[in-house]
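Protocol step 4 of 6: structure prediction from sequence.
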Amino acid sequence: MLELLSYLHDSELVAGFQRRCGLFLVEAAHHSRGKTRFVNAEESRGDLETGWDHQDNNSNYKYRGNGCSAGASLCRPQYEVRNWLLHFLFLFSAGLGHENFYITCLPCIHWNLDPFLCRRLVNMWTLVMYVGQVMKDVLKLPRPHSPPVVKLEPRVDAEYGLPSTHAMAAIAISFTLLLSAPSRIQFQFEVGLLLAVTLSSLVCLSRLYTGMHSVLDVICGILISATLTFLSYPYWETLDHFQLSSRISPIVALVLPLFLSYTYPELDHYSTTRADTTTILGVGAGCSIGYWVNEQLGQTFEPQGVLPVPLPRMTANALALGVARFLLGVVALVGTRQVVKTVSLQVLYSWYRVPKNDRSARRRKEIEVPYKFVTYTAVGLVNSILVNRVFILLGL
């Protein structure tokens, strides 16, 4: 069993997948002189044994050859793409797990389809992402090494690897939507199942292609997310009732995520996981409070008529209205994020007497957690309470 786990966690397995998809690592020193030489499997293993001697707390290596470090632009591993179709497909699939996707496509379900489905998705997304992020920083298993792997997303390279939260989110979102939609909307289940499997598979494979996760990371992400979805499924209706009807629902929705943000596991180096987790918890808190407010006001914006309702027909008028709602909604959310972020940072910098040009201060826990939480709680509130009311005022 240990041999199997070690094999699945091997960086060379990821590099082999990249090469089969047409992504090749190029030796940086030769590339910088205008010459291209590809690094094969044996060379990459030799680099790990001889040239990569220092391992930091995340097992990300720093190269000592030529006096260069991995952070130096001239010595950063170069790569060549031989299959641009797969390259853009996997980059697009990887983007389905980033903030830009969450702040656009998930709210779009609320604005154009059914707020009930959006609420379910946000609840499960928040749960699996929190569990995944915490497991990363508790288990502290490294990401694949470069070389032999080409890493296309250096921003998250300081984070630990197992489990893949992209894989967890893809499974949770796809199958929560698949399990929740039949009671709300008429559609062919087999088609929905095919779409769920296809999209989640693309996201999972994209984590290997971008070099950010091992096969073991992805498999564990899939299994953990599937387990959480299976175990929580019987309680979705109970949670819905509590979230919308209980008097203490907004208090729990605000206090619990804030507590989890402040008690997030501490690391011996800076990582974006705490900030990302606080962002997710803030969105979940804002949306939960917003849905409770809508229920109390008696205006939930859910489909009218006998459920499940037919899927909206894709007419030119319906498409134009959907695009208008999408664009206006995104502008509202992005604008809210920028305004609240700016104001909250100014208040916190002033409170802690930090120079306004000190961008590194944003990494301090006493600044990072409150500004992230307040910003994205506001985004969740605007999404769930205000945007639909603006649509009504504008006749959309």
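Step 5 (inspection) to follow. Strands lie at 23-26, 54-55, 61-62, 78-81, 185-186, 309-310.
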